[in-house]
Design a protein that fits this description.
45% helix; mainly alpha
Amino acid sequence: MDDVIYHLICDTAGGRLDAGEAIRKLQEHRKEMSSVEYSRSSCVLRLFRHLKNIKEKYASLISCYDVAAMLRQVIMMYHSRIPLSPELASCLSPIAETCGLYIDDRNEADINEEMPDWLPVGALAPVFELEPRRRNDTHTGDGLLYRMTGYTSYASGAQKTIVQASMNMKEGETLLACLPTGSGKSLVGLLPAFFETKGGILRGNVGERSGTTIVVVPTVSLAHDQCRAAQAFFVRHGTGRFIPQAYTSDMTGEER
């Protein structure tokens, strides 16, 4: 599949295939790609879109920079030089060095591999090899996790440690939990809340036994997203009054 995409890139950058048609063909090929191939081809799709903009609008300096940036990423993804049409080479040549590109006298583009002194040689290679960033590091779950989510294991040992630490905190203690995006920090607030309210059966209210769990997030959209995710777990509540709620600026006074 990579060979097919590479030839598609060469035909488009070389001016033998219209960028709009290249986008259509790429989208068709993407339907049959593996997840790694699909991710790799994302920069190709962006390159074609920028080439289409240049063709349909005008070869502005900004558009040329967009093409140069995507072209460099494509070369690093596919480990191959890219032949350019004379028009595209003329557009990119004045900015090639600035964008980390080298265009030879045959109009073939390659990357300029010079790196700053502070960046180790080869440090970026794993990025363009699309090495997995998440490892399968699951740890045995417990009854509470299974009761709330149906999962039999935690996503990682770190998640399990942090969740159990939050469940065993004493009054007045503070826990600082740092995990990467997508590694399950939400569970740190959800599981204790589920336990204290017995899945939403007990009223969550300041001063009462079950207490109230407050989660502060940076955006309204994230608040709504977190709320929807939490509501899926609190399905045993007797009324809608005690299910997880998103308290945001777009609420009416009555809702507040």
